[in-house]
Amino acid sequence: MNSNLHSKLPLIPETPLDLSEHTRALLASIVESSDDAIISKNLNGIITSWNIAAGRIFGYTAEEMVGQSILRLIPEELHYQEDDILTKLRAGERIDHYETVRVRKNGERIEVSVTISPIKDSSGRIVGASKIARDISIRKQVERLLMQSEKLAATGRMAATIAHEINNPLESLMNLVFLARNSCASNEAAHAYLLIAEKELERVSHLARQTLGYYRGNGRPVEVHPKEIMEDVLTIYHAKLLGNGISVECQFDDPRLITLDKGELVQVFSNVIANSIDAMQQGGLLHIEIRNIVRGGKEGVLTVIRDQGIGIPQEHLGKIFEPFFTTKGDLGTGIGLWVAKRLVEKRGGQLSISSSTEPGNSGTSLSIYLPFAAPHGDAAAKELSPSTLVGLKALQL
After folding, report:
1. 132 DSSP β-pair partners
2. Contacts of residue 161, Cβ cutoff 8 Å, sequence gap at least 6
3. Per-residue pLDDT tens over the stretch 32-87
4. Pairing label, strands 47-50, 37-42
5. CATH of 223-373, one of 3.30.565.10, 3.40.50.1980, 3.40.50.300, 3.60.20.10
6. Domain range list for the chain
7. What are the contacts of 161-167 at 24+ separation with CB within 8 A?
8. What is the pLDDT of residues 167-187, one digit of tens each?
9. Which has the least CB within 10 A, 104, 125, 265, 295?
């Protein structure tokens, strides 16, 4: 057999009955045509053979890997797994469909399912191991998406129950605020605060009715000034901003009126402001800018919110808009920015983020672009599936 083949292919264990050259060549051909990585190593973890699929999956050639430690493929924090595997192999144990993470030549991590079998010599002594690795990254990604979908559905069912219980007390609170507002008309400051409180209660009641399925949106976008909505949101968070030692700097042009769902824009601004406050526990400056721009040939309004918080690590930025992903640990739900992005894109806009964790220059900047011209048709129905709508309504509560 070609001597080159021996450097690439797993060792074929000796048996009491010698295999013919034809049989060995057949087995070698099967190994080389496999879609799975087939690798052999000795009991010190040194690779002794490497098939074509291994090169395709991991990015290394046989010349680069034969004679090297298998640890090259294992993330540093998982090196302990190799010690466990070698211990089991020396005891003659086989490892079936072990799911773990490995590293490609380019540094990319992939999820694999590994089956490892001992290799014995003619006397029955264990001299190495044959490993079959299958890339299961796509399957695992599908499983995670399915799990997220199930979480959304479960959250929707739970929220519907909660919404039913809170709807009646909300109606009572709205009536009391209305009466209080009419009773203190002479006190302008108190009257203004109660008016905002009434609007916020109406928004919560609206979301509760949505979740219960009484109606889906008011179907009547209105003309609004984004700066006025931002001012309302800042009024709502005024006490929290003051308590955290956060000063606010606003730079508002005179933007045109834009037609949209006012409650949805309040939701977007509220999510972003709340995140900035959480990121600035030691105080700092919150800069908010609203101006007219032209993007992609379309006129629109751009809102930029920059904080001086702790920032978001670069490895997390790509996941920041995924449902249930959070950098706040137990304090976060991981749905605020996901909801915000859905609402902005439904209106034909774009939401983007940049961040730095560099000491002395940390902070996050989030840009919200909304075109003046709304997308044609029922964008909400086109872009959000029924299960997503259920989850979105629930999560807004």
Report:
1. 38, 115
2. none
3. 778 899 999 999 999 999 999 999 999 999 999 999 999 999 999 999 999 999 89
4. antiparallel
5. 3.30.565.10
6. 3-135, 138-221+389-397, 223-373
7. 162/397, 163/207, 163/208, 163/209, 163/211, 163/212, 163/397, 164/212, 166/208, 167/205, 167/208, 167/209, 167/212
8. 667 766 777 777 787 788 778
9. 125
